[in-house]
Amino acid sequence: MRDDVEVSGWLRPGYLVLAWISFALGMVGVFVPLMPTTCFLLLAVWAASRGSPRFARWIREHPRFGPPVVAWERERAIPRPAKRLAVLMLGASILVLLFTLGLLWLKVTIIGGLLLLGVWIHTRPEPGMGRCPLRGLASRSPLER
């Protein structure tokens, strides 16, 4: 599900700046705990596909960062190690919030949102889980499910 629609005119530089800022924030997330990486890379690819398809292609083909981005674009799937890390980081964030945030209503709201996000991440499919990429149909027989 690629949106390689290069924009011309005055919007193109804006998309390119957004792509580079998102990419930079994603790179910070590689080294800083609790800072997301993949979501910034997804935003970078989306913006780059409009501002610089060459940059978007470079991100998709990158050996480290490309596979999760491509898995999300093609299948809306999250690799198992990324799921585990995301849920672990959400759990750590919840623990920090439990002991540091004073306002009960805010604490309940944020923790509730993080729990819902964790459930959503956990329920996303993993790349290549029984789907035929060409037809979008199940490639396993009903007996194998």
Write structural notes for this entry.
With 145 residues, the chain is an all-alpha fold. It is built from 6 helices and no strands. The longest helix has 21 residues, at 11-31. The model is unreliable at 132-145 (pLDDT under 50).
Morphology: globular
Derived structural class? mainly alpha
Q: What is the chains' assembly state? A: single chain
Mean pLDDT: 82
Beta-strand share of residues: under 5%
Distance between the termini: 26 Å
Using brief descriptors, characterize the structure shown.
0% strand, 6 helices, globular, 145 residues, mainly alpha
Helices and strands, with pairings:
Elements: H1 11-31, H2 38-51, H3 53-61, H4 66-75, H5 80-100, H6 104-123
Helix pairs in contact: 1-2, 2-3, 3-4, 5-6
What's this, in brief?
Helix content is 66%, strand content 0%.
